[in-house]
């Protein structure tokens, strides 16, 4: 294996960013807006009020500082500092929109200009600069309201300097969301600022190429992260609207990408309106998904069974989304999870079965734990994940472990026996134990019952030989495995029927009952729900079926069903 040069590459990028920022800092370019910008970003009124009161919650860290300037805060983590430098908090202050919010927004933005405007500080990276430009331009009316001419001149001069920096350094961003942020910011500035028009055309051409390279024919991204796909669609919508407002025709590749992404996002949306939480993504900011889909003007849904490697099953008011493709590979796996064949189940407006989620906002240990198979609602061999992490390398300013070993074969097909169900499988454990995981799922047409069956077994002569080798090495004690069903923290769950079933109560009043065929041991254990915007993980519960493979294969059947007068009993495999 070659020597890891990520550290030296990161240092070189930092040095080149500083050089380009210093050169841009000496420029005196933009003098005003070509046309008056309109806010397009969506913020949170509640978060805006918290900021005004001096409660700074970013990247899982809460710092209380009433009356403290945002740039005087201690920086507990690089992710906290990035959140400040990207100026996404402007959206939240604009959502409040009163005099106090305007004063905070102006003080903090002009404070940034005073401290960092000459090309200094950690915010001079292309993705953060693009993010910041979009917010400053979107909220220019709020930021310039009541300010003197000198402040207005400083504001436009700094916007122009950031635009020049971005035009020189956007190529250094990682493909994917960071590059989309940088290019969208450059397009925004090129179209909106006087004297910056020359930067628009190259940025539009580059964005077109990025769409063609990163967005596949099915409207998916290499990272396979639903929330990241939402952020990319939002940026493309903004770029498209900015072009139309400027009287330019958006490139065909841009419109085609938007038309492919929209149906895919609809397929990754649960019945409660939130996104499935896979590969580092969350449910999505409140209102962001609806706004992005509405802005596309596209009402179609995907007719294919799979969207970005996920299968969506719908029955009545229940939705089930399962990860049914290979995990992301290479650079795209920096935030990917070992979630193959994991699923989430939502009943009406209430999520029930979930994955723990991304722990990235709670520190490196939680981030790593959240990526493990045991943090997802699927089967895992004790002590192993279906995909394994490699050594850490730099990803932006923070180290990340990329997925090293992943399943080579992941498949999904319709179950001919049921017609409404599907069968999935992956070979992620063949190398370690000679085992293949097969999962059968059937969601009833009324959405009131989910039947499942999980099989862990050796399928080929080579797999059987590997299993027997491990079996003998373990002293004929078998290969232990667990099937986990993580419950949303709003669910109340209790062991029932003498410990042979679990009753799950949703806040809607629905009661769901989990049963199994008796092959495994049933337990109700503690779990966590890792959610962005909170200070610490939320406590929750998980249903766990535990068993061992003793003779080349073990098969376990189970059901989730809404409580009825005559609940149907599970048929043992």
From TrEMBL:
Source organism (scientific name): Thioclava marina
Entry-linked Pfam families: Hepar_II_III_C (PF07940)
Principal subcellular localisation of the protein: other
Highest taxon above the source species: Bacteria
Matches recorded under InterPro entries: Chondroitin_lyas, Hepar_II_III_C
Residue ranges occupied by any Heparinase II/III-like C-terminal domain in the UniProt entry: 307-559
Compartments where located: Cell envelope
Name this protein carries in UniProt: Heparinase
